[in-house]
């Protein structure tokens, strides 16, 4: 009765066929919505987003059942011994967490990928099966950000603008023996109500901009507390949207080993080959989220989960 490997959604960049169903002209939309922040400093006092405490353990989330809509700061702590993240994706109005598990996670991904992990089929065959099983409504899910990859014992603040609806929270890092965290309990529902936080969009110290397929970000950043706007200006050609994760680069860090680790298919087994200090989960083009972290001097790198191997890696120095 194992549910091993059965629950996830992830970077289908390995599926060239998916590019076809994404529509060819998704490249543009983002710049149009580079919105009001330039001229938005009105005389009114700004309202800070409320802080919602959330946490990850091995292997469950601590999170409220419902929160208000609008700008909200998710204070995410990793209380476990393995890396975790907490993606927020909004379900279509007529779908539930149970539908997601039955049709997407266990249904499509579990059914398609289990034979691959058991060594019974080739990857290409498993991915073709997966494509055929993913329900059409998966394409209507709205990827809404959330706390990215984080090492054990650390915390990060991620501020996102959530619309009302029913959300799936998920982490699909794997245990050292290849079990998806989501299959072990790290999948949960959360309702965002129509009550509004009334908070203003935060102000950032600098931007990290995600496009196809490049991360634009400063080469040098001042040490200390930084609020970073993660801004997505294009949707990629694959099914997975853009996200970004921050690693500390030390003498022991081999980015050449971190990049393949980012793949949900054959990588992502804890422990990671680098220290992840935060990140922003997948966001749709035209949207932004904010990451607040305290940066010690040293070398760092931003990495995309799905597209790091297509060049979405950006190294920088904190001084
Ligand atoms: Cu996890």
Describe the structure.
This protein is of the alpha+beta class. 14% of the residues lie in helices and 34% in strands. The chain contains four helices and 17 strands. Strands 1, 2, 3, 4, 5, 6, 7, 8, 9, 10, 12 and 15 form a twelve-stranded mixed beta sheet that branches. A five-stranded mixed beta sheet has the order 11-17-16-13-14, with no helix packed on it. A hairpin with a 2-residue loop joins strand 9 and strand 10. The chain is globular and about 55 Å long. The N terminus is likely disordered. The structure holds copper (II) ion. The site of copper (II) ion has 6 residues, from loops.
Total helical elements: 4
Distance between the termini: 52 Å
Helix content: 10-25%
Order of helices and strands: HEEEEHHEEEEEEEEEHEEEE
Strand content: 25-35%
**Parts with pLDDT < 50 across at least 5 consecutive residues:** 1-41
Question: Could you list some keywords that capture this structure?
Answer:
319 residues; alpha+beta; 12-stranded mixed sheet; 5-stranded mixed sheet; 4 helices; globular; binds copper (II) ion
